[in-house]
Design a protein that fits this description.
single chain, 468 residues, mainly beta, four-stranded antiparallel β-sheet, globular
Length: 468
C-alpha cells in the first residue's frame, strides 16, 4: 500500500506547517518541518523549509503564511512522494494576499526545494492556496494538485470562490493547461454567488470505485433559498480530461450559518464500494447550543451523495456533550487504527473545554463499521491547558499514515496555540501510535528545537496549523 514517503525508505513521513514562523526579522513568513518514519516511529529532521532556502522558490516576506496548508502526492515520475505547500498570504506584485503554492520534491535524501507557482490572474485577497488536495484527476498516473481560491471574485461577484487544478507530469507540477473551476461553469452545479467561498476546503477520493480521483469541494458560505450560509459541497468527477460535471450536496436540514462544508474528508468508512464523504459543519447548533458542531457522513458516487448520517457529541456512542462553541468537526481526517477495513473518522473539537481548562481541545475518534462511523473514543493531550486548540489540524489525506510500518495506522494531531515554556502559541504536535485492536499510544509532544526538530519554539509560530 502506498505511503506518504518522501525519502523512499518505506516508512510514512510527516510534514508540519508553522505558518506564523518568523524568518530572521520577517514576521509571519512561515515554515515547514519534516519528521521521517522509522521502525521506532517518527524521527525529527533538523531541516526547516521556508521560501528562499534550500532551493525553495520565492522570498520569505511578511505574513506570507507559508505552511498554512500542505498536501502530498506523486507529482512527477519518480517513486518519492512530493509536498505542496500553500502560502495564501503571499502577495504577487501589487495584489496583497493573492496567494501562492510551493512544490517540494521528494528524494533519497528527503524533501528538496522546488518551484513557486501563482495564479494566472492574481488579485488582492484571492487566497490562492487556502486549501489543497492531491489526486490523479485525469488518469495519467501523475498526481495533480487542486488549489482552493475561496476569495476569488467571479466577474463582479465578490468572494464566490474557485478551484484551480495544476496537473502533474514527468517533470512535476506545472501551470500549463491549468483548469479553473467555479460554480455554474462547465456544468458545475450551483451558481457563483457573493461570499459562497467555494474552495474553502478540499478532499480527493475514489468515490466511484475506479482509478481516477474525484474531488470534494466545500462551499460553507452557500445560501440555500432564504437560509443564509447554510453551506454545501460540490462533488466533481475525475475524467481523462480532468474534473467535470458535479453534484451539489447539502444537509438534510440546512440552517442559517451552519457553515456545512467548512471541512471535508474522504475514506471508506463503511462496507460498500467506493469512498464516502465526511463534511464538517462546526457552526451547527445542536440542542440549542450555537456552534456545538456536527459532521455528516454521506456515501455514493459522484452522480450524487446519499444516506446522510448526522453525527455529534453525545449521540450514537460519541463521547462528550454538545456545548456552546465546541466546533465539533472543525477538522476531519480518515484513519484506521484497528485494521478491520472500515476506516475510522477522526474529528477535531478544538474549542472543547477539558475540566477547568477552556478551549483546550480534543479529538473524537469514531470507529468505522458496516454502516459507517459511530461510537468511538476520546483523544486528549497529556497536559491540557487553556487555549491549546488541540485538534485544530489532523494528518489525513489521500493515503493513511503508518509511521512505524507495523500495519496499523497512526494519527498526528496539531495544537497550534500550545504555549511552549514562556512562548505563547508556539505550537505542538502529538502522535497517537496504533498497535492493533484499536489501541492508541500517545507520544510526547513534538515541538521545534526539541528532539532534533529544526527551528526554535517561538511565540506565534503556530507549529501544527497544518499536517500531512
Amino acid at each position: 500500500e502506498a505511503r506518504v514517503d518522501f525519502n523512499g525508505d518505506n516508512f510514512a513521513d510527516l510534514a508540519v506547517g508553522a505558518f506564523g514562523e518568523d524568518i530572521g526579522s520577517v514576521d509571519g513568513a512561515g515554515a515547514v518541518n519534516v519528521l521521517y518514519g522509522s521502525a521506532g516511529g517518527l524521527v525529527a529532521s533538523s531541516d526547516v523549509f521556508f521560501q528562499g532556502s534550500n532551493g525553495v522558490g520565492g522570498t520569505a516576506d511578511e505574513n506570507d503564511t507559508f505552511g498554512r496548508t500542505i498536501a502530498q502526492g506523486l507529482f512527477n515520475d519518480d517513486e518519492f512522494f512530493d509536498l505542496a505547500v500553500g502560502s495564501p498570504g503571499e502577495s504577487d506584485g501589487g495584489a496583497s494576499a493573492s496567494g501562492a503554492v510551493n512544490i517540494l520534491y521528494g528524494s533519497a535524501g528527503g524533501l528538496t526545494g522546488g518551484p513557486q507557482l501563482f495564479q494566472s490572474n492574481p488579485e488582492t485577497n484571492d487566497r490562492f492556496g487556502e486549501s489543497l488536495a492531491a489526486g490523479d484527476f485525469n488518469g495519467d498516473d501523475f498526481f495533480d494538485l487542486a488549489v482552493g481560491v475561496p476569495g476569488e471574485n467571479i466577474g463582479t461577484t465578490g468572494d464566490a470562490g474557485a478551484v484551480t487544478i495544476l496537473f502533474g507530469s514527468a517533470a512535476g507540477i506545472t501551470t500549463a493547461g491549468a483548469q479553473t473551476i467555479f460554480q455554474g461553469s462547465g456544468g458545475i452545479a450551483g451558481s457563483a454567488e457573493a461570499l459562497d467561498q467555494f474552495g474553502t476546503s478540499l478532499a480527493s477520493g475514489l468515490l466511484a470505485g475506479d482509478d481516477i480521483a474525484d474531488l470534494v469541494v466545500g462551499v460553507p458560505g452557500e445560501d440555500l433559498g432564504g437560509v443564509g450560509e447554510a453551506g454545501a459541497v460540490n462533488v466533481l468527477a475525475g475524467s481523462p480530461g480532468g474534473l467535470v460535471n458535479g453534484s451539489l450536496a447539502t444537509q438534510s436540514n440546512p440552517e442559517s450559518s451552519d457553515a456545512f462544508g467548512t471541512t471535508v474528508a474522504t475514506g471508506d468508512f463503511d462496507d460498500t464500494a467506493g469512498d464516502d464523504v465526511a463534511v464538517g459543519a462546526p457552526d451547527e447548533t445542536v440542542n440549542g447550543r450555537r456552534s456545538a458542531g456536527a459532521v455528516s457522513v454521506l456515501n455514493g458516487p459522484p452522480s450524487g451523495l446519499a444516506n446522510e448520517r448526522l453525527l455529534f457529541q453525545g449521540t450514537a456512542g460519541i463521547p462528550g456533550t454538545p456545548e456552546l462553541g465546541d466546533l465539533f468537526g472543525a477538522a476531519l481526517a480518515p484513519t484506521d487504527s484497528n485494521g478491520i477495513g472500515q476506516w475510522d473518522l477522526a474529528v477535531g473539537v478544538p474549542y472543547e473545554d477539558v475540566g477547568p481548562d477552556v478551549d483546550t481541545g480534543v479529538v473524537n475518534l469514531l470507529a468505522g463499521s458496516v454502516t459507517g462511523p459511530s461510537a468511538g473514543s476520546l483523544l486528549q493531550q497529556g497536559n491540557p491547558e487553556d487555549f491549546d486548540y488541540f485538534g485544530w489540524a489532523l494528518a489525513g489525506g489521500f493515503f493513511l499514515h503508518d509511521y512505524d510500518n507495523n500495519g496499523f495506522f497512526d494519527l498526528a494531531v496539531g495544537a497550534p496555540l500550545e504555549d511552549v515554556g514562556t512562548e505563547d502559541d508556539a505550537g505542538a504536535v502529538t502522535v497517537f501510535s496504533a498497535s492493533g485492536g484499536g489501541v492508541l499510544t500517545r507520544g510526547s509532544p513534538i515541538i521545534q528545537g526539541s528532539g532534533g526538530l529544526g527551528g526554535t519554539a517561538e511565540a506565534f509560530d503556530m507549529l501544527g496549523i497544518a499536517l500531512e
